[in-house]
Each structure stands twice: as C-alpha cells, then as structure tokens.
Write a structure and sequence with these properties.
The complex is a heterodimer. Chain A is built from 10 helices and 12 strands. Chain A is of the alpha/beta class. In chain A, a hairpin with a 4-residue loop joins strand 10 and strand 11. The chains are: A alpha/beta, B mainly alpha.
C-alpha cells in the first residue's frame, strides 16, 4: 500500500498580490511506500517544504491529486492518522511540556485521563524529556523543543509521520539523538517521510529517497539502488620501504594500470580497498545530470 | 459533539494564551487606575459625585474592553502565522472553521472575565455611596461585551490577511465610524446633498452601529433600558458577529499557511 501518492502536483506563488505567479512545483508525481523510511532531498528552494505543506493541506495546490493510505483524500479522518513536525518548530511557550502534549492529544481526538497521562509520560521518556514535563516551553533549549515537537507528532500514534528538516539547527549530539528517535519510530512499522539537507543522516536512517531539483522530481527509488549506480573508487596503499603512499583511482582499468606501475617500480603493495560510494557523491552526480 | 470538543480545546488554549500574556495585566492595571481616578474626580463635585464616579468608572471598563478586543485580537491569529504554530494545529483533525471559532470563543471568554472583574471593582467603589450602584450598569456591562463580540470578530477577520498594525488601524476606523453613525444619519437627514445621503445610507449597511450597545448615559442618569431595545441590540450584535466570523472563515479557507 502507498502511504502517500502525489500525482501531477503543481503549485505556484505570487510574491506580491499584483505580481505574476511564479511556479514552485511543476507536475510532480511520486509515491511513498507504507512502513518505509523515505528521505526527501533537494537544494534550498527546490520545493521540499512546499510539497510537504501541500501534502498536509496547509498550502492549496494549483493542480494535482494527493492520496493517502491507498485511495483516501485528506479528511479529518486521514489527518488523524498523520503526524507532522515542521521545520524549526516554535510552540506555545506559555505551556508546560505536559500541557502542550495534552493540548495536541485533545486536538487529535484523545480523551483526557489516566491513559493520556500515561501516554504523555511514555513519550517524554522516549524523547528524553521526562525531567522537563512541568517546565514551560519558553525554558526549553532548541534541541528540547525539537524533541517535544517529535512527541506531539506521534502522540496520537499515527501511521504516517512527516518531518520537515527534523535535524536542522541541532548540534551533533542532538542530531544523533533525533536520528535515534526516528529509527525507533520506524522500527515500530510506521511510515516516516522526512526532508533534510544533512545527507549523512539521510543515508543513516532512510531506505528510500525522493529527490527534487527546482521543483521537479529527479530521483525516486531505493537508497541502495542510487548508491549502486555510483562508480566506486579504489584506494591503494603502497610503500618503497622508506615512505608510505596512498592513492585513489576511479575504475578497474585505472586500478590495474596503477598496480602494474607500482610493481614495475618494485614497491610493495600493502592494501587495495574499495571506497564505498556515499550519498553525498551520488547526490552531487544526480544534480549534475 | 466531537467538533465542539475540538473548538473547546482551541478555546481553552487561546484563553490560557491571553491570560498568561503580560499585556493583559498592563491593561488591567491601567483600568483599575482609571476607575480609582473616577473616585478622585467624583470628589471634585459636591452634588454630582455618584454620577461622575459611574461615568468615569464605566468609561474605564469600556476603554479596556475596546483595547483588549482590538489590540490583543489583532495578534491572536497573526501571531500563530508569524510563529508558525498554525502548521502543527491545522494538520490535526481540526477544520479551519473550528480553529476560528475556538480562537474567538477563548478570546471572548477572556474579555467577559476581564469585564466582569473590572465591573466588580467598579461596584465596590460605587457601592460605598448610597446611590452609587444602579441596575442599568449591568446593561451597560452587557453592552460592552456585545460591542467586544463585534470588534473581536472583525479584528480576527481582518487579521487573517493583514499585519496587526493594519488590522488595528482598520478596526479603530470602524470603531470611530460605528460610534459616529447616529450623528452621520442626523446630518444626512438635514443635508441637501443626495450623494451624502446615499453614502450615509450605505454606511448603515456596511458598518455596525456601535452606539446601539452603549447604555452608559442611561446608567449615569439612572434610566431604565427598554427591553425591546435591549433585545434588538442583542440580535444586532449576534448578526454582525456572525457575518464577521463567516468572512473570517471564508478568507481563512483560501489562505496558504506557509
């Protein structure tokens, strides 16, 4: 089953009321499989946030169809099955962590009571904020706000969770922790769709990718497939007994030539190692096409 | 039932938001001082002491209700856009009309609480005088709340697309025209200009007549407000509030929440 299915989606903006509309997204179609973690990539201004907000009904599309869980349109019932964390979230600073989660639970149709209090305690523990439930959100750090934001996104136990840049602006510890939380959510069989600029994190967490360039789709598929398409480099380490050398070559032919050359110079080959292709390399190649 | 629960959840949060805002306490202190001043002003007159205290005191409550309706109301929705809290709200099973109704309800609950609280202070002051308190003062308080319903709904409608400063300017404009409509009609009747008469006539349809809910003079003069007039004023306020809220919902339905 497809968790999200976007067909021929178009969105344009008018920067000023009297000016002509500028297209932001042109005929975008892609799908997100159920129970997968899909990374949503693209440069600044590629249209990631616009697409996410349109999927969630926050922006009104000019054209196209967006379906959820197979064939359902965005209704109150569907929204009850979706969780969302926006980019750089800012929440009601006058509420405490507990009050904040209680409010969002109520908006998701959950009843106040012991069961909800237990759920809030569980979530605060999951995101590492058990100690801060009674603190006002104005006292929270950026990382804490991000964590409590994740908690509000999943408080109603949604099937599909959409995160817009969940790790942006966080320090390395915070990024790692948020990545761990995302992985834990994914392990529960939820569908996670998240945009990010941080390719290392995307590579670590996601299995599938959707890549946008200037409002158009340039890749949709598995991460493994994309990395498989990238030509691997080889690293050769060799020595002439006095000095250690290390060199990288592009392909098999270059590798063999280089090895012959080293042998001719009567040097010792210490190690030949394939250098694994990473997402950064694959992403750059994709964008240059 | 589910819809009502959602509206009440938004209203409760909106109530907390305003109640925990320091600006509210600024307004409160200002009004209490104004009511206190009415006592001083009353002391200046030997014969009309009670009248002056009631007049000044009610004016204080009126000003604070208007300030609250216009200034806090103008940022109530726009703040959610500015701080982008709206993004996490509207992705919940919450319709946009429920959001507007909830915000409005929470806001009105604050205005009503504040008006009643200030009125109690006024009663305490006027109650010290033999003829200080009169029943028409309660009608006046009700009139203030009706006026705030209309102004708050209008402010919310404006703030969907405008920045707070522009919303405040527009609503204060409507406030001035709304209190001046009776005078405009009076001048139009005696005017020879057809254009002026048409403009005055049109103004009656596009601006609420805010003097309909003003029973301050009756309270000061200890007159009774006719029940039919009171009833018509209520219908009128509910009608205008309904229109402005519908406009707010229609505008909000078409708005991109970026």
């Amino acid at each position: 089953m497809k968790a999200i299915s976007v067909k021929n989606f178009k969105k344009s903006y008018r920067s000023e009321f009297w000016l002509k509309k500028i297209p932001a997204i042109e005929n975008l179609s892609f799908e997100v499989e159920h129970s997968t973690v899909t990374g949503f990539l693209g440069a600044n201004g590629a249209g990631k946030s616009t697409t996410i907000k349109s999927i969630l009904g926050l922006l009104i599309p000019d054209a196209g169809e967006i379906l959820f869980f197979g064939d359902k349109t965005l209704t109150a019932e569907t929204r009850g099955r979706i969780g969302f964390l926006p980019e750089r979230p800012f929440f009601y600073e006058y509420l405490s962590g507990n009050e904040f989660l209680e409010f969002y639970a109520q908006l998701s149709g959950m009843k106040l009571g012991k069961a909800l209090n237990k759920r809030i305690d569980e979530l605060l523990e999951l995101v590492g904020l058990s100690h801060a439930g009674d603190k006002k959100l104005r006292e929270y750090s950026k990382g804490m706000l991000q964590r409590v934001g994740i908690a509000q996104a999943i408080i109603h136990d949604p099937e599909l969770i959409i995160f817009d840049e969940p790790m942006s602006g966080l320090d390395p510890d915070g990024r790692y922790d948020v990545g761990q939380i995302l992985q834990q959510i994914a392990e529960q069989g939820k569908t996670v769709f998240f945009s990010s600029h941080l390719l290392d994190d995307v590579e670590r967490i996601s299995k599938d990718l959707v890549v946008l360039k200037k409002g158009e789709l340039i890749y949709q598929g598995s991460l493994a497939e994309l990395l498989g398409n990238v030509e691997s480099d080889y690293r050769i380490e060799y020595t002439n007994s006095n000095e250690l050398f290390s060199e990288e070559v592009k392909d098999q032919v270059s590798l063999q030539n280089k090895l012959d050359e080293i042998r001719k110079q009567q040097m010792t080959i210490l190690r030949v190692q394939p250098v694994k292709a990473n997402l950064e390399q694959a992403y750059v190649n994709l964008n240059q096409k | 039932m589910k819809s009502l629960k959602l509206i009440l959840a938004v209203a409760k949060n909106s109530y907390k938001e305003i109640i925990r805002d320091r600006i509210l306490y600024g307004i409160l202190v200002f009004t209490v001082l104004l009511i206190g001043l009415s006592r001083v002003m009353g002391g200046l007159s030997f014969a009309e002491q009670e009248r002056i205290i009631v007049d000044f005191g009610l004016a204080g409550v009126h000003i604070s209700v208007v300030i609250l309706s216009v200034f806090i109301g103008s940022s109530l929705v726009s703040k959610e856009f500015e701080k982008r809290t709206i993004l996490t709200l509207l992705v919940r099973p919450l319709d946009r009309y429920q959001y507007i109704c909830g915000k409005f309800l929470g806001f009105i609950a604050v205005i009503a609480s504040l008006s009643i609280g200030l009125f109690m202070v006024l009663i305490l002051i006027t109650g010290a005088f033999e003829n200080g308190f009169n029943f028409t003062m309660l009608y006046t308080l009700h009139g203030f709340i009706l006026e705030s319903l209309v102004l708050a709904s209008l402010t919310i409608a404006f703030s969907i697309y405008s920045k707070p400063v522009i919303s405040v300017s527009f609503v204060l404009g409507v406030f001035i025209i709304g209190h001046w409509l009776d005078n405009l009609n009076y001048f139009a009747k005696s005017s020879e200009s057809e254009m002026f008469r048409i403009m005055a006539e049109v103004s009656n349809y596009i601006f609420p007549n805010l003097e309909l809910w003003n029973w301050k003079a009756q309270a000061v003069n200890r007159e009774v407000v006719p029940f039919q007039q009171f009833l018509n004023a209520n219908y009128n306020a509910i009608g205008w509030t309904g229109i402005f809220l519908c406009v707010a919902v229609l505008l909000f339905r078409k708005k991109d929440c970026a």
